[in-house]
């Protein structure tokens, strides 16, 4: 059984971060997360993008804006969830991820501009995918793949309208609405 994973994006700035934050949400969805929480600026465009992709490509992925990330994470922890903070200052992912229990909900925290120091203490696991500055999207992708047992998300999500047909030299998209 796949773990129940929520990705929490801290410090989103609408004018500067909309593309990278959208990519974080899309990566979370594609690699098996259930939920995305946008913290920082309330950016309906990012949430609409994630909803549109979920509507077209299926799955039960949801997203929301939450104005107070620390309150959200404290509540998540009190409800028995485990908090994983992706940071280049954490312990190496390949030695820590195997210890993260997958029978309780997991919140994967991905920082933005400045991560509050309290996050490091609140997190059950501070996990590093490398100890150099790098893309938070890359860190999330590597972590999610490892958490899910080296397997990407499902090729086909339930309720998908669009399905990609692998092809060696072109694009093939099956639109289930055209079959009706």
Write up this protein:
The protein is an alpha/beta fold and 180 residues long. It has a single domain (5-175), classed as 3-Layer(aba) Sandwich (Alpha/beta knot). The chain has six helices and eight strands, in the order βαβαβαβαβαβαββ. The strands form two sheets. It has a six-stranded parallel β-sheet. α4 (93-96) links the parallel β4 and β5. The mean pLDDT is 91.
Keywords:
Alpha/beta knot, alpha/beta, six-stranded parallel β-sheet, 8 strands, single chain, 180 residues, two-stranded antiparallel ribbon, globular
Tell me the series of helices and strands, N- to C-terminal.
EHEHEHEHEHEHEE
User: Any idea of the CATH topology?
Assistant: Alpha/beta knot
CATH class annotation: Alpha Beta
Overall CATH architecture: 3-Layer(aba) Sandwich
Total tally of structural domains: 1
Helicity, in percent? 25-40%
The CATH homologous superfamily: SPOUT methyltransferase, trefoil knot domain
**Spatial shape:** globular
In percent, how much strand structure appears in the residues? 15-25%
Strand order of the largest sheet: 3-2-1-5-4-6
